[in-house]
Amino acid sequence: MRVGSVIEIKDNEFRAGITPADVQQYVAHGHDVILQKGLGVCSGYTDEAYEAQGAVMYDNAKDVWDEADLMIKVKEPMGEELNRMHEGQIIFTYFHMAANRQLTEALLEKKVSAVAYETVKDAVGHLPLLSPMSQIAGRLSLFAGAHALQKPNGGSGVLLSGVPGVRSANVLIIGGGVVGTNAAVMAHGIGSNVKIMDKNHKRLAELDLQFNSQVETLYSDDETISRNIKDADLVISTVLIPGASAPKLIKKHHIESMKEGSVIVDVAIDQGGSTELSRPTTHTHPTYVENGVVMYCVSNMPGAVPFTATTSLTNATIQYGLKLADEGIEVIRKNKPLYYGLNTYMGHVTNPGVAGSLDLEYLDPKEIFA
Question: In the annotation, is 96 catalytic?
Answer without folding.
Answer: yes
